Amino acid sequence: MNSVAGKVVLITGAASGLGLADAMLLADEGATVVLTDINEQRVRAAAQQIGRGAVPFHQDVGEEAGWMRIIGEIEKRFGRLDVLVNNAGLVRYGSVEDCSLQDFQLQQRVMVEGVFLGCKHAIPLMAKSGGGSIINISSMGSHQGFPTITAYSAAKGAIRSMTKSIAIYCQQKGYGIRCNSIHPGKINTGLIQENVSPEQVAQREQSWDALPAGAYGAPKDVAHLVLYLASPASRFMTGSELVIDNGATMTPID
Question: Is 45 exposed, middle or buried (0-12, 13-18, 19+ CB in 10 A)?
């Protein structure tokens, strides 16, 4: 317990879904969490729900000036940054023929440029703080071919490869910063929801039983993996890609 006690953690896209689950668990484990989201009202409500000194910021992760402002405010308030969770994302469905250039560019802006900018501006403060952990949320879409989410898969694939480059860069610079990517499968969030009753979802959220084939995961499943990567227990992991999908990417096709 309290494996991240005293750490300052920045989580993007934290007003709901995976980001909110991450923030709640890390706060429970003793971290000070800074939540950012494009939805200012929801991120403020999320911080209030968490309590324990949680700090909300309105942020468009594709804007560099916003990153500079938020990192500067974190340094001013706390003097350090230990963990960055690049979680913000969105999906616009479309095949390579159907997807508009506007939708393609939007998804690259949020998920590729957003991760790049987050790492670029967080790394100096993290290095100054004595090191830390960067956790980039990718997707199983970076491992499999999904024809209806071409732009989303491209963005998540870029996160996968960029993570490795950043990991080795930080290692060679001696910053003490690890960088890993998480690749969730289908999780019950606002982006993707399983066709089951609310009662079944609530029951699964409370249980730790193994899930049957084809079942969706819960946000807490990913949050506990984020907690592991944020904690010193994962000190020997950098540049890794952790798939958490209930075996979906390796299930044989009949």
Answer: middle
